[in-house]
Amino acid sequence: MSRRGRWTAIVLGILAAAVLAAGALGFRQRLYEEWYLWKLRSADRAESDLAAAKLAELGSARAVEPLLEAIRRENEVATFGGFTMNDWLGLRPMSHALYRIGGKALPSIDGALANEAWADSHKVLTCVRDAIQGKYDSRFSSVIPLTWHYPPLTSP
């Protein structure tokens, strides 16, 4: 190989590496989003809860439908609490992630509320929608995530 050909190969190799690095950096958020969407389907509750929190942190609109399905599957609940029962609204991790995603989730939440198949999740979805729309601002000091897990109920 000639000297000129060798330098051309080196320069093109460096240029290709730079293009690959720039592409990886440019798609980093998309890669993280895909990873956490995959983790959201995990059978390990702690792992899927963490994935939900990370997707909310990213503001992922693509996470809305999988979060809605997880809420439906897990039968999540909303809790009101505090000294006067008006101090806070507590949401389980999937519901809290949906709340943190915000307005991007409203069309999907409204669609789920209109669907009769979602009747069991109606209360929590209504609370999430109302919290996103700011209907609790004057009533609650905060919307908090509930991270503890209740032990399964067993019959005596």
Describe the structure.
This protein is mostly helical. It has one domain. It has helices spanning 3-26, 28-40, 45-58, 64-74, 93-101, 106-114, 122-132; strands at 78-81, 88-91, 142-145. Strands 1-2-3 form a 3-stranded mixed beta sheet. Strand 1 (78-81) and strand 2 (88-91) form a beta hairpin. The chain is elongated. The model is unreliable at 148-156 (pLDDT under 50).
Q: What would you call the shape?
A: elongated
Number of beta-strand segments:
3
Alpha-beta classification = mainly alpha
What Rg is obtained from the alpha carbons, in whole angstroms? 22 Å
Largest sheet: number of strands, sense, barrel closure = 3 strands, mixed
The helicity comes to 55-70%
Can you give the mean pLDDT?
A: 80
Give the amount of beta strand, in percent. Answer: 5-15%
H/E topology pattern? HHHHEEHHHE
- Number of domain modules: 1
- The strands making up the biggest β-sheet line up spatially as 1-2-3
Low-confidence stretches: 148-156
- Helix tally equals 7
